[in-house]
Amino acid sequence: MAAPGIKLTWNVKKEQINVDAEGLMKRMKEVYDAIGALSNDDANYDNVVKPAADSDCWYAVERNNLDFLQHVSPDKELRDASVDADKKMSEFDVELSMQQDAFESFVALETKPDFKSWKPEAQRFVERVIKTGKRNGLHLPKETQEKIKAIKKRMSDLSIDFSKNLNEENTVLEFTEKELDGLPEDFIKSLEKGSEGKLKVTLKYPHYFPCMKKARNPETRRIMETAFNSRCIKENTPILEELVKLRHEKSQLLGYPTHSHFVLDMRMAKTPETVAQFLASLAEKLKPLKNEEMALFLAYKKEECEKYGYEYDGEIKNWDLRYYMTMVEEKKYAVDQQQLKEYFPMSVVTQGLLDIYQELLSLTFTQIQTTDVWHEDVTLYSVHDKVSNDLLGYFYLDLHPREGKYGHAACFGLQPGCVGPDGSRQVAVAAMVANFTKPTADQPSLLTHDEVETYFHEFGHVMHQICAQAEFALFSGTHVERDFVEAPSQMLENWVWEKEPLTRMSAHYKDGSPIPDDLLEKLTLSRKANAGVFNLRQITLGTFDQKIHTSPQADTAKVYAETSEEYMEIKATPGTNMAATFSHLAGGYDAQYYGYMWSEVFCMDMFVSRFKKEGIMSSKVGQDYRKCILYPGGSLDAADMLKNFLGREPNEDAFLESKGLKA
Fold it and tell me: Looking at the annotation, which residues are catalytic?
């Protein structure tokens, strides 16, 4: 093991994965068979709740040790073995979640005379298990249960395949240097040579986004955007459309009108009507802002076409969006992203970010030297409480792209922080996985400001995983309502727009000089740049997600194209299907992508009414934040956590203002 308290090891052989998975499932089945064998009279805390909670604790660790490798291992055979094990264990999870006799032992607990005197978290555990059992159909006839079980297994396999297809996607396009006009010299230099002197460009983020933002030639951007939104179109379109059908079918069997009704029943929003109203009302407020921005994009496009001799077609296409958004930042706000990037070398940003989080949340991070990692780029840190010096957990950082690796940025909870079988606390372990540009011979890895924001966001999830101190694995870390889960990490994005933290996590890569004040000022003013377009795109995605999940079936390319035209007034590029690349819809955000916007309302309220007022580096507010928002994990309802931190009910004033709108 890499360090005391870490129960994971990355020295895993592909032959061992299947054997370990089989052994793990067998042990778990024994626990649930024993719980299910009890009579209702015999069922009690010690023989039902404790073994179930204890098994959650070790099962999560050992399962993650096997199935996390599909996202990060550099060895394709190991990734494939991890995918196969994940499929088997996911099918097993379905079987386990539908074990009727064990469910009945839990139901029996609620009728015990002493149940109401149990600790609130233990009561919540039993209530959640029963609610989940009913959402799996365990109160329905056996025949219906079997149908639900078959659907859940099929959905699980499809979701894993959807994600695997995107991870393994490796399209390479070739362009002449002329076709890449407008891109910075360091980017051009970093590209591999292709045939006939052309340069190789992939669809991975460190290539795709710079091309969309800076490639002057609209044809180059069109080729890139078309390829990007056609990734896995043949494989993933039918997968997503089958998932939509199966989700609807399962919801109907469970007595819900649609999949969205089923999902939202366990969320803060509660109903699809509430979500639709939230998104539509916000869209209405943002439309005038978006129209102004689009008019400016068109003016720039006309100018650009005349200047470089491209044909002007009088409309903004999908492949124009990021290009003109970047131009607005540069012209209207005079923010030169290329110049700015030189002040964000990865090592300085990392050190600054770690220092800020330590100060804000009263923590101490220490880098651990270990070879027990899945790739040589990975680093490991321990986290202690600054005051008590208690060990809270560990986090891994895996920050650069490589073949077959998970393509986005995300935090993976690998070991839940909870009370273990022996009564002592099992510390939390999390991994932050990202795809920031690798250093070259000439210069270090330099981050764009967007990437710095992403870094802060995902690291916010890492802190949530580690600072949560719930007793049960079921409520550990980020196991809160899905439409609240983004709020704590979104809240911490605010730090990358404030002068003091920005100064602390930046220094020019050549001479260590600070970002000039005027550049900092322009950057912070540019926060509202393109707010209409950017947020309406988020609303487009959230609305698309709701549309397909309030229908029995969907032609996803058609629905996406219609939704994009309705909100963005931009036609989807012919032959593409953005939905086939939309990993959230197979990765647990189905019918809940609106949660990003929804939780942003709370994140801005928390930031403005506490940190902005009392000091953004105030460790006193940081301690309150840790105690009220991070500490409970999912052991309290999000609405109660917010009230405890804000001292009142939340409101959307700060959120609207942050978008440049009047409350």
Answer: 458
Tokens 């959807």 sit at which residue? 162
**286: Cβ–Cβ under 8 A, 6 or more apart, which residues?**
531, 532, 535, 536, 539, 659, 661
Q: Counting Cβ atoms within 10 Å, is residue 119 exposed (0-12), middle (13-18) or buried (19+)?
A: exposed
What is the end-to-end Cα distance of the chain in Å, rounded? 52
- Tell me the whole-structure pTM to 2 decimals: 0.93
Interval 212-226: pLDDT, tens: 999 999 999 999 999
Give the model's pLDDT for residue 663: 64
pLDDT of residue 1: 65
Side-chain-side CA neighbours of 555 within 13 Å: the count stands at: 4
Question: What is the rounded distance in angstroms from the CA atom of residue 366 to the CA atom of residue 364?
Answer: 7
Please classify residue 479 by burial: count the beta carbons closer than 10 Å to its beta carbon, then call 0-12 exposed, 13-18 middle and 19+ buried: buried
Distance of alpha carbon 209 from alpha carbon 322, whole angstroms: 8
Count of CB atoms situated within 10 Å of the CB of 517 = 10
* Tally of residues, the chain: 663
Q: What is the mean pLDDT of the chain?
A: 96
pLDDT in tens, 168-194: 999 999 999 999 999 999 999 999 999
**DSSP states of 192-257 as a string?**
PB-GGG-EEEESSHHHHHHHHHH---HHHHHHHHHHHTTTTHHHHHHHHHHHHHHHHHHHHHTT-S
Helix axes 321-331, 205-214, angle to 10 degrees: 70
CA-angle at 168, arms to 573 and 172, nearest 5°:
55
Alpha-carbon distance of 525 to 592, in angstroms, equals 31
With H, G, I as helix, E, B as strand and everything else as coil, classify residue 413: strand
| pLDDT confidence of residue 389 | 97
Identify the CA nearest to 410 among candidates 348, 489, 477.
489
pLDDT value at 505 more than 70: yes
Mark 29-43 as b/e (b = at least 16 C-beta within 10 Å): eebbeebeebeeeeb
